[in-house]
Amino acid sequence: MAYEFTKEDLREIEKIKAKYPEVMPATLPTLWVAQRRFGHVEPEVQRLVAETLGLPEAHVHGVANFYTQYYKEKKGKHVLDVCTCLSCQLCGGYEILHHLEETLGIKAGDTTEDGTFTLNQVECLGACGYAPMLQVTNDKYVNHLTKEKADELVDKLKNGEEPDYEQMKMPQHKNI
Amino acid sequence: MSTVDWKNYTPVLLPDIKDLHKIDVYIKNGGYKALKSVLTDKKSWDGPKAVIEEVKSANIRGRGGAGFNAGLKWSFMPPADGGPRYLACNGDESEPGTFKDRKIFEYNPHVFIEGALIAAYAMEITTIYVYIRGEYKTYIDMVENAIADAYNKGYIGKNIFGSDFSVDFYVHSGAGAYICGEETSMLESLEGKRGYPRVKPPFPAQKGLWGRPTTINNVETLSHVTGVINNGAEWFSGIGAKTHPGPVLYGISGHVNNPGVYELPSGIPVLDLIEIAGGMRNGKKLKAVIPGGSSTPILRADQLDGITMDSDSLRTVGSMLGTAGMVVMDEDTDIVDVLWRISHFYHHESCGQCTPCREGTGWLEKILLKIKNGDGEVRDLDLLLDVTTQMEGRTICALADAAAWPVRFTINRFRDEFEARCKKKSHAVA
User: Fold this and answer.
1) Which structural domain, as residue segments, surrounds residue A41?
2) Distances (CA, A) of A151 to A84, A89, A143, A148, A156
3) Which of A121, A123, A128 to mutate to test the interface with B (most CBs of B within 10 A)?
4) Domain co-membership, B262 together with B230
5) Do A124 and B178 touch (CB under 8 A)?
6) Pick from A145, B60, B145, B331: CA 20 to 30 A from residue A101's CA?
7) Residues of A in contact with B278 (CB under 8 A)
8) What pLDDT digit, counting tens, does each position of B357-376 carry?
9) What is the extent of the structural domain holding B400?
10) pLDDT tens digit string along A87-116?
11) Is the peptide bond before B202 cis (omega within 30 degrees of 0)?
């Protein structure tokens, strides 16, 4: 399959390039544009990014491979990144991970047969006070997880609903 | 004991004001007054150097973990030569236990933007980048909106407040790599490359982004600048611990009742901070605390009497303030499991550039896994300690040290628990 950026993407990429004195710094943000467009940055997509920016394909490939958030292969429609790092480990992150493994019938790192879910175990996501938690497809955080809340999330995503943005308040305050 | 009066403290960085992230609400609450003052009030501010001197004497110690005087760091910038100069704001925030800067992005982004603009003026900087970890997509959008609002008001861009100071301000999103919080790795990532830390010297002030003078400051550090300009250096240095002054965003997580981010003065007793966070969950006893992110040495409960959250006090018991992201562990915590998980993190995040780190972090994790699974021997503990000494100080950046310290100090402070997990046969040498 030949990948192509839309006109809108190309305009966005031009805007990105204007932020920097050189073209190379546009590599990371352009990979983001590509991943949002195609759902992944497989080698074919990396080639498109390289050609669009006029940079060596090897450079784009090297960058894509260094950063964990770029999907170097196709993933499920929803990627559940469950944090199991320090604070989440202490507060039951592994229990949530294992529960989701059971519910979805896959192991961490795998994708369900119907391509709906990919389940990952990830490193600290910077939500330590709201542990255990997970991130949905590089976007929303779902905090203070319980098995029930994880099940609700899976159902919600299956029904085509998006997870809500959860505002985590400062415990010493009333308004924020 | 500490004499810090935290009970009467009212937050200034993250005050309890609804919708403060909206620029009009921020302005109504005194926002952008500090920026206007340094740019237009020539009686109070005799040029950029005067701003640097004020910030230097406030003694804002870097909130990213290293604790270096921010104003002093600014003074390392060479004289302006008409070419581009950069400020790179570090919002990568990836050290396990740390989740404070996201609160600034969410609740008060303009206090950070204003502080960064003042820093840019003080160092005659032409472009500001804020590097935010890619996982914080929600907060990246928020900061981008806030920056766009500030552009619209004329606080960013050409001839700000009619002065001859002009600056641009951009967000650069990361894409998942702890190492990019290391300042030179962050510069590489900003330049569009793999985040391999650079050899220093040259330091970023001499050769930073695209070979030009660059200063890197943590987001919370820059946010404090706004308050220092508004209220004066003496106000700031009068808050909290004398040698590590000012408000601190404490991120408290683990086995407490009310985890979250708290803004309080530096130098609060560790045990008081646990009480502030609602005390221990389920009435359990405290076992240990990691005071400032996973790389800061763990402290046993019996080491904490009279210890306060500032670098001097924590040093007396062999730890550090780090990012003030405190992880609290109760009596049921399996310390061997915890240390293995920390080592797994550093192994995963080692960029692989330096051999002692790339290999060392792998060995630490592997040996700890063996011990965790009950297959370890007591001599493995000494092997672990030996590996740490071969990592520390032998690499380009501090990730190897950050990986080695938890292993060294956790084994030293909980040796009995590690030995209890090891096979008994290793004692039978004869």
Assistant:
1) 7-66
2) 18, 19, 13, 5, 9
3) A128
4) no
5) yes
6) B331
7) 171
8) 999 999 999 999 999 999 99
9) 335-427
10) 999 999 999 999 999 999 999 999 999 999
11) yes
